[in-house]
Amino acid sequence: MEIQAWEKKKVNTVNRYRGRGIYDFQTVNTIVDETPLVHVSFSPPAEEGETPFPVILPMLGCTSSYPNPPLEDKSESRIVYLHGSISARMMRLAKAADAGVDSESVGNLPSSDQGIPVCIAATQLDGIVLALNPFNHSCNYRSAVIFGHAYLVTDEAERSHAMQLITNNLVPSRWENSRVPLTSSELKSTGILRVEIQSASAKVRTGTTGEDRKDLKDEEMRKGVWAGVVPAYLKLGSPVEAPTNLREGVPGYLKEWVEDGNRKREVYACDAAK
Q1: Count of helices and strands (H, E) across the chain
Q2: Cross-strand bridge partners of residue 204
Q3: What is the pTM (predicted TM-score) of this model?
């Protein structure tokens, strides 16, 4: 079966270590969904008295095939949902764009049919690569960069879908095991952005050290310098109950998520070091 992938363009082509570049939907979607916090960058309007710097925000988010049912292997083209406060600047800019506000009144905001241009970065650190000399030190990692346009979601069915999806992507089954449905005030204060992806790519490094031939020939030096990979992975601790908690014991779904997640991440990081 043909692998579905993003077309290589100037904006998404990996130039440094081209062999590490990966463009298929499955890899990009998986990296984003396995990253607890993604970083979203955008250029705010150039208002009087404001600095001209771009903004980068850590946000909760995940991919979705909405309104179509998702493929289990995530090999289809998807959108990205981002969660935040409805009063946040990014949400307000998206709302202004959707309302068709004149571009001169909101700085460099794009036209309403384009949404807000954003870039989403997701990175997993899998190991610290320690070569014989510092120049060849590196890291094992999985990273994805997405380019697209963000729109404020107003349809209640889609908003509900996105909120459940983001919650359960962070902790599986958490939505169903929480106090739901949300109150009207909670719903009103929550903002959801839908990012239509225009282009994307991933970059992955695995393996051990890369050494200079000259260093490999210096056995005396090699006897005094340790070289190898220190696996790195997110390890979740034992759940600590809140002072307000009345439920006895840690729920099974939560224990399983912590234990299985820790084990899978450790196995991947150790395998990637070889």
Answers
A1: 7, 8
A2: 142
A3: 0.92
Element (H, E) at 147: strand 138-152
Contact assessment for residue 121 and residue 61, using Cβ atoms and an 8 Å cutoff: no
Q: Are the beta carbons of 149 and 115 closer than 8 angstroms? A: yes
Q: What is the pLDDT of residues 159-171, one digit of tens each?
A: 999 999 999 999 9
46-104 pLDDT per residue, tens = 765 667 889 999 999 999 999 999 999 999 999 999 999 998 989 988 888 877 654 44
Tell the residue number behind the tokens 């250029």, with chain if given. Answer: 43
Q: How many residues does the chain have?
A: 274
Backbone angles phi, psi at 111, to 5 degrees: -65, 160
As a dihedral over the C-alpha atoms of residue 60, residue 127, residue 269, residue 206, rounded to 10 degrees, the angle is 100
CA dihedral for 20, 21, 27, 32, sign (positive or negative): positive
Question: Beta strand 38-42 with 79-85: parallel, antiparallel or unpaired?
Answer: unpaired
